[in-house]
Design a protein that fits this description.
Helices cover 42% and strands 15% of the residues. The chain is an alpha/beta fold. Helix 5 packs across helix 6.
Length: 402
């Protein structure tokens, strides 16, 4: 079986680790012969080498006319073509994208990389139109534990739903299951792909608490209205976290999650190094998802405003406190039994004293939380992460027996 992965993100260690976990799993499956990986951003690829894997980095199926369009522009664009199987590839100027089409044609299965709401609130038209071409070429499509929700764009939703109805859909949120059910689309739930990740990298530091903080108000569509400043984060989160950690005999580890956080983290790190000399471990400029994973694994305690900070803390039974910004973070806390280990970030940022009180409460219940995570890691729900790839093996075996 030849597999094509589409839409894989980079420059974000959470997406990197989920993508690496998927590739590690596919490489181990005998039924998979070759894997092409098509990336969302040109010139970047996941740090994994295997004879089965080809990283396609020199082109991205970019449709600039569409990527910044609204529903009316989408409608005008699509009325030029028949939907799905009747679409004219010539009219999509595939002579300029011959490698894209050639790559798609040789695939027996197209897997949508484990992503956030690219088919939904992030409105990733490049991914959608790539999938439209795959569908027009009669390719089987599998969504590998993605988030899928309402894009609020009528035409985008319409096209997405046609593709989803013809696909095998696995999602990482029960909220996505409910949304798709309302649309008459079948889907299956499983936990995040990153739970499959295997890492042989060791991190030598110990006895530290990790702060995995991002300026959510600078990039998340639902939080831009808050316009929080760096000093707001320092006052409400960073200083209390550092004081709490040092009072409990732990150093403070600053951990980078994505390229978009670079400038923000530089300011946070400068503050901490100036005010807590000798107590700071600076990992604000790391460039390896393997190291990122190892740092979380070795942590005593993690405070995170990133979803995959929660996922990896759970994976390694590291007690955590999540500053939630969306439903997938909340669901991840709850399916691990850690209902008291998160708050919505806007509630935390609106109260100067609440954050520290929550740290103290979690610290008081540290052993209980650790036990909950150990129980979660031996539960049946952990097995759901393998459902999509077990499905692939089943389909291939059925085809071989025909």
């Amino acid at each position: 079986m030849n597999v094509l992965i589409v839409g894989q993100h980079t420059y974000n260690f959470g997406d990197d680790i989920a993508g690496l976990a998927l590739l590690q799993r596919l490489v181990s499956i005998d039924e998979v012969g070759h894997i092409d990986v098509m990336y969302r951003f040109p010139g970047s690829h996941l740090p994994i080498l295997d004879s089965k894997i080809t990283h396609i980095t020199e082109f991205v199926p970019e449709f600039n006319i569409i990527n910044h369009a609204g529903s009316i522009s989408d409608l005008l664009y699509f009325t030029r073509y028949s939907i799905l199987k009747k679409i004219s590839l010539n009219k999509l100027q595939v002579e300029k994208r011959s490698k894209l089409v050639k790559t798609i044609k040789k695939a027996d299965l197209v897997i949508v990389a484990p992503l956030g709401a690219s088919i939904g609130s992030y409105v990733d038209r490049t991914l959608l139109y790539t999938l439209l071409i795959c569908s027009s070429l009669n390719k089987s499509i599998l969504f590998h534990l993605d988030t899928i929700n309402d894009s609020k764009k009528f035409v985008f939703n319409f096209i997405a739903e046609q593709i989803l109805r013809q696909s095998n859909v696995f999602v990482r949120e029960k909220q996505s299951v409910r949304y798709l059910k309302m649309r008459g689309i079948d889907s299956s739930f499983g936990i995040d792909t990153a739970f499959m990740f295997k890492n042989e990298i060791q991190y030598n530091e110990h006895n530290y608490n990790t702060l995995l903080l991002s300026d959510i108000s600078s990039w998340h569509i639902n939080y831009k209205k808050y316009r929080w400043e760096v000093n707001d984060y320092i006052k409400i989160i960073v200083k209390p976290f550092a004081d709490f950690s040092i009072a409990n005999g732990k150093r403070v580890c600053i951990l980078k999650h994505a390229e978009i956080d670079n400038d923000f983290l530089k300011k946070i790190t400068c503050y901490l190094q100036d005010n807590y000399v000798g107590n700071i471990i600076d990992n604000s400029d790391i460039d390896s998802p393997y190291l990122y994973d190892a740092i979380i694994q070795n942590s005593n305690f993690v405070v995170t405003s990133r979803y995959h900070g929660v996922i990896l803390s759970e994976k390694y039974s590291v007690p955590f406190y999540a500053l939630a910004y969306d439903s997938k973070t909340v669901e991840a806390c709850e399916y691990a039994g850690c209902n008291d280990s998160y708050d919505w970030i806007e509630n935390v940022m609106n109260d100067d004293h609440y954050f520290l009180s929550r740290l103290e409460m979690i610290n008081k219940n540290y052993k209980k939380i650790e036990q909950k995570l150990n129980t979660f890691n031996t539960s049946n729900i952990k097995k759901t992460v393998y459902n999509p790839t077990e499905f692939i093996k089943k389909i291939q075996n059925e085809n071989d027996n025909k």
